[in-house]
Amino acid sequence: MVTAGTADPRPHIDEVLVRRLVDAQFPQWAGLPLELLDPAGSDHVIYRLGEELSVRLPRHAGAIGQARKEARWLPRLAPHLPLAVPVPVGVGAPAFGYPWPWAVSRWLDGEVATVEALADSSGAAVALADFLAALQGFAPEGVPAEDGGEDLTGRPLSERDRATRAAIADVDGVFDAAAMTELWEAALSAPGWDGPPVWFHGDFHTGNLLTVDGRLSAVIDFGGLATGDPAPDLMIAFTLMSPDSRAVFRDALGVDDATWLRGRGWALATGLNAYTYYAAVDPRVAAQTTRQITHALIG
Fold first, then answer.
1. Domain boundary residue, one of 84, 106, 128
2. What is the mean pLDDT of residues 275-289?
3. Which of 203, 240, 242, 276 is the most buried (most CB within 10 A)?
4. What Å distances lie between residue 66 and 86, 220, 262, CA to CA?
5. How far is residue 261's CA from residue 234's CA, in Å, rounded to a whole number?
6. 134/239 same-domain check
7. pTM above 0.70, yes or no
């Protein structure tokens, strides 16, 4: 987040830049029309390129590894997953003052999933459980800790302790600080993952799900893809589902008590992080993260 009086370190990205990058590095697509996708999230600027492609450019340094990670792993994962995922077709190089790798992928049709449409859907809950089960089951004996020098090991929940406690203090009065602290300490004290490392999406929330005709169709934005404890992906139960569909989801996925508690901790921590950064300037994020935090407290 850029504060007043601080220079914005993010590169300027506009259609002129994207046109030059595409035309110079992928001449087979030169001249295809560009259309800005807005809103596109906090990590990337996204343009639709013609009818069948999208161009994704990281907004900040924290997202610069995603293009190469997705290009390497999504083609391997996609055949094993019951929902569509992005299909990378090219990774662009820094040029024309833009400093980072960027990606061209196949366009996925669909609307962003909404609580209003899917919160009470047991079918959606089962579909999401099936997706996570398939992701976690991919190459269970060969899940890498590192790939090409990139660390793919998920970080423990405890690394968020200081920031989460500070956020709890910041929002005291908006949310129940005592209840949040109780949940946070319980999540930190829960037994850790004692199974083999598994793949997890890492940012598995409503905004990264697409629907067609009211049914889940795709999962996007695998920048957080990593291996280890699957608990981070349980945040979807608190961003999208009602208590009843959440119970269906948990049963379908077979989540034990300790993992569920860690998942509630992840939902609380990530919800608080987004709320404290964006709620004051983005009412959409404020509503989404308020729901995430309150449902994490409900359990």
1. 106
2. 91
3. 240
4. 12, 12, 25
5. 10
6. yes
7. yes
Residue owning tokens 């089951």: 137
Residue 26 domain flag: yes
Q: Answer whether the bond into residue 39 is a cis peptide, omega within 30°.
A: yes
**What is the tens place of the pLDDT at every residue in 163-200?**
999 999 999 999 999 999 999 999 999 999 999 899 99
Please provide the size of the chain in residues: 299
Write the secondary structure of the chain as one string of H (helix), E (strand) and C (coil): CCCCCCCCCCCCCCHHHHHHHHHHHCHHHCCCCEEEECCCCCCEEEEEECCCEEEEEECCHHHCCHHHHHHHHHHHHHHHCCCECCCEEEEECCECCECCCEEEEECCCCEECCHHHHCCCHHHHHHHHHHHHHHHHCCCCCCCCEECCEECECCCHHHHHHHHHHHHHHCECCECHHHHHHHHHHHHHCCCCCCCCEEECCCCCHHHEEEECCEEEEECCCCCCEEECCHHHHHHHHHCCCHHHHHHHHHHHCCCHHHHHHHHHHHHHHHHHHHHHHCCCCHHHHHHHHHHHHHHHHC
User: b/e for 90-101, b at 16 or more Cβ within 10 A?
Assistant: bbbeeeeebebb
Structure tokens at 10: 């993010």
Do residue 239 and residue 260 come from a single domain?
yes
**Residue 21 near residue 38 (C-beta atoms within 8 A):** no
* Core vs surface per residue 42-53: b (16+ CB within 10 A) or e: bbbbbbbbeeeb
Nearest-CA neighbor of 271 among 255, 249, 295, 250? 295
Token pair belonging to 201: 């999406």
Structure tokens at 32: 């295809």
